[in-house]
Amino acid sequence: MSDAALASRPQVRRGHANRLQEYGVYAAVAALVLFNLVFIPNFMSLGNFRTQLVQVAPIVIVALGMALVIGTEGIDLSVGAVMALAAALIPLYLGYGLVPALAMALTAGLVAGVCNGLLVAYVGIQPIIATLALLVGGRGLALVMAHGQLVDIHNPALLNLGSGDLLGVPISVVIAAVPAALTGLLIRRTALGRRIVAIGGNRSASALSGLPVRRVLVTVYAICGLFAALAGVLATARLGAGDPADTGILMELSAITAVVVGGTPLSGGRVRVAGTVAGALLMQLVYATLIKHNLPDSSAQMVQAAIIVVAVYVSRERSGR
Amino acid sequence: MSTSTTPTGFHESTPVPGPGSREAAHRRLVAGLLQRQGAALVFLAVMAVAWIVFPGFGTTGNLRTLALQSSFLAVIALGMTLVIISGGIDLSVGSVYALGGVLAAYGSRWGFFGALLLPLAVCGLIGLVNGLLVARTAMAPFIATLATLLFARGLLLAITGEGATTYKIDNDQVFLEIGRGVLFGVGYPVYITLALFVAGGVLLRRTRFGQALFATGGSESSAVLMGLPVARTKIMVYVLSGLLAGFSGAMTAAYLQSGVTVIGVGTELDAIAAVVIGGTLLTGGAGTVIGTLFGVLLRNVIQNIINQIGTLDGNFQSVVSGAFLLVVVVVQRTLSRGRR
């Protein structure tokens, strides 16, 4: 399941530090699970296990898209706002049925992502600023569409997405597994995946060797937008209401954290899909563990900060700036 | 941050007036004017239009409020300008701002200096951690300051009993004057902000530190080769950013007479937007503090105008802000292409 160190940085890494860098996040997840098994009764009860997975599902989906964007040496700050847009659109179109509502929400995410991609690839605006504009404007737009209100949802099919089961597994977890598998395949088995990594590794060299750099960038941001909208749909279904004010708030930070803790460097040129999933799981487990030990929210946040610093310190680029 | 893919054609606009020919300098000035002073020009235009169209806009009361409201964000954005010129970014300022306010209210039990020095000490320390992480461990500024964003928010929650306690500042405290005092009809925060911006401008343009800062942001490896104290400069910049954000928080606490725990979420993005609108490039190595001041003013004037219209949904504020930011960066980008 480990991600191959992909081609653009071909030097083979050896030694303890590098093994820590490669497998540290999995080891941390395993250690945390073991710790909890021993010290918290009922930790592995089915109910708790399900709750953790359902909570982490939207973060995983967003983080996967974010990992692709970060792989191209970019960043997408707009994911939370795109989730809010999805949350605002679903109740608006639910009257036409579930499928049109989902289609509208996902299309909005796709369009938002394409806009980001065009700004980054064709206009040449830095990713952080291009997507910041949508972060600021997107949630406002979502609130305007929903008249600033929370809208209850009564469509049983949609609610089922948030709380239903498929063969005993929560549907939202099943849904999150699909983008995870697809992203893994995309990176390891397709030309697009190779190109993403190549562009992140060295954009000008990629352009000189004839890769369609701009098209790839637009595609990557479009995928990220689409995934964010999907996460917005799941969050809405789980809440049972379209809530553009709170859906996806600070999601960009959670997603970036998951990606970085999972070992994908911010400098691009490498995408670790399984690492990203593990990164999201790790942050969720840390939080759950601290809460179960009756540590307050404040300590949980400070511990998370420390984990980010340690994870990035371990995995930082030694040759980088 | 991705500096590699962006042209660095702006380094000639660093403050050293080169010995180039007169016409060349003149052309550069005109071409750079829109890029660097664009925010000021747009600000004046928007002000003029608003003055004429909305009778409530030009009133002394409204302008006073506008200036006062702008000063809190402006102080944060000043620090952000320095950080961005160094080629970095500071995401922690929103949390540090809120933390500064809470600490000021908490420290006010020890009088004026308690209220002032406690937030400055803690926030400066957080800035120091940012600086050390960025300069000494070569961690990406985005991630290092993201971690301190979480940390500062956690610390704030820890001090306030998970956000349940709001510390008040007693009525008789001199410290309140920092936020509430009025001189010639204008609030003290406005004067303080202007003084800080003058100091910031002098620091950038007239000191060794400022020169090292521009050089570091322009090309870090060249700055290292020239023997400039790059690491020290970077650390200093993050400390200043932390201090300014903390001070702005203290000023806000004095104005509100309490340490409000829920403020500052997303403020870092407002500050970044203001800096970018003000013409400072995210790639580092170029920028002005006066542009940032106009960036902040412009943002608040636009919000003010939307309030004046009244019939518009308040949420349009952020839609307009986002669209405006987009227009500004696209125009900047086009101009910078033309200048290459």
UniProtKB/TrEMBL annotation, chain A:
GO CC annotation: plasma membrane
Keyword set includes Transmembrane helix: yes
Stretches that traverse the bilayer: 23-40, 52-70, 77-96, 102-121, 128-146, 166-187, 216-237, 249-266
Keywords linked to the UniProt accession: Cell membrane, Membrane, Transmembrane, Transmembrane helix
Cell location: Cell membrane
Membrane topology qualifier: Multi-pass membrane protein
UniProt-recorded Gene Ontology molecular function terms: transmembrane transporter activity
Xref: InterPro entries: ABC_transp_permease (IPR001851)
Protein name: ABC transporter permease
The species this protein was found in: Sphaerisporangium album
Taxonomic lineage from the root: Bacteria, Bacillati, Actinomycetota, Actinomycetes, Streptosporangiales
UniProtKB/TrEMBL annotation, chain B:
Any GO MF annotation of the entry: transmembrane transporter activity
Keywords: Cell membrane, Membrane, Transmembrane, Transmembrane helix
Membrane-spanning parts: 38-60, 72-98, 110-135, 142-161, 181-204, 235-256, 271-298
Domain of life: Bacteria
Renumbered residue ranges of the record's region Disordered: 1-22
Pfam family, one: BPD_transp_2
PANTHER family assigned to the protein according to its UniProt record, in alphabetical order: ABC TRANSPORTER PERMEASE PROTEIN YPHD-RELATED-RELATED, INNER MEMBRANE ABC TRANSPORTER PERMEASE PROTEIN YJFF
Name of the protein this chain belongs to: ABC transporter permease
Organism name: Sphaerisporangium album
